Amino acid sequence: MPRKTAEPESRSADKHRGSPDDANPGGKRSAAAFVPTTTSLRTLSAAAHECRGCDLYKAATQVVFGAGPKTARVMFVGEQPGDQEDREGAPFVGPAGALLDKALVDAGIPRDEVYVTNAVKHFKWEPRGKRRIHKKPNQLEINACRPWLDAEIDVVKPQVIVCLGATAAQALLGRSFKVTQNRGRFVKSALAPYVTATVHPSSLLRAPDDETRRAETRNFVEDLKKIAAVLTASARPRAA
Length: 240
Ligand code: URA
What we know:
Elements lengths: L40 H8 L25 E5 L4 H6 L6 H13 L6 E5 L6 E4 L2 E4 L4 H18 L3 E5 L1 H8 L5 H4 L3 E2 L6 E5 L2 H5 L4 H24 L7
Parallel strand pairs: 1-2, 1-5, 5-7
Antiparallel strand pairs: 3-4, 6-7
The chain binds uracil.
The site of uracil has 13 residues, from helix 3.
């Protein structure tokens, strides 16, 4: 498939994908009413700062929208921003992001081909002493945030979507999807030509010892190499 080129960005931020009632249809929470109909990532990101589609915005510092070029051919989807991402307002800028960046280099995936985002756009946490401890988002929060992810996929139109960890995989591939059994395989999905899942890089950071971490990191890079191969096979040949 030919590499995408940048498209002109629409300015139709005033048109939204849902009505204000969509924020609470039948008691369910949803971001739909806050998501503008646009082809601009900047417009989407600005609108996300106003999102009240669920209650997570209340305890978070700010929304953490996806980052990367609109022309990216690969979209990595994590769970939710961590403590550092919440403070900086950008995804994958903490320890898990550093690990992902190194694995991308080792796998040969150019950074300018990559868009990173999360299934949930606000940091969910609970206090433990002075620390803010990551708390897993629940199904209601994942569902409420889904319109943002759908909008990002619509705009970027990635060739490959990579779910990082169970939360992203189950959000995009169904609740029965098991990352441990299916990691590194491409699954049929209407979301993109190639959709796959692997472990979340933060699981590597939690490995019980160095040897396990090294082995798990090698497996992670092997999964990413399969994505690199798809990108290489489908890259448009450069002019001589
Ligand atoms: N973990 C995630 O899932 N996303 C981030 O942005 C950072 C850590």
